[in-house]
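Backbone geometry:
***
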Amino acid sequence: MFALGIDPGVSRCGYGLVARDASGYHPVVAGVITTPPADPLPGRLATILRELTELIAEHRPEVVVVERVFFQTNVRTAMSVGQASGLALAAAATAGCEIVQYTANEVKASVAGYGAASKEQMQRMVQALLSLPTLPKPPDVADALALALCHLAVAPRLARIAKAGGAR
């Protein structure tokens, strides 16, 4: 199974594609889409949409996992994350991908075993789970990889629940 995690943001939009097979989890590609804060917002959004669309077309993930904005104290940041999240959802839907969303706390609990894990703890857990030689940086990349890892860990349970006729 291939899962593409997207940590939405307008200045930095992290992405990470992880494969799972019988031997474990394997990173396929990871990075960050950046846009200059001084540029006009419509152009920045167009860049993010174009790059996400190209990424999805090139790698054809089975599922796209986007962080769900659950709570944000800074309204400007929340708006920015919401705009980038909408682009990620639209790009995935246009490509016909399955889409799932998890909150940051759900991802942290799944990957690190603690819903309030720090950025550094998450980076270290992602590094360990994917046998990476160095910490994934910037944190947006680690967060995107963690989103993919979260779904790959949760998906088998969700499939069993669906098969049994239950809901998540």
User: Anything to note?
Assistant: Strands lie at 2-7, 12-21, 24-34, 63-68, 98-103. DSSP finds five helices and five strands in the chain. The domain at 2-163 is CATH 3.30.420.10 (Nucleotidyltransferase; domain 5). The mean pLDDT is 92.
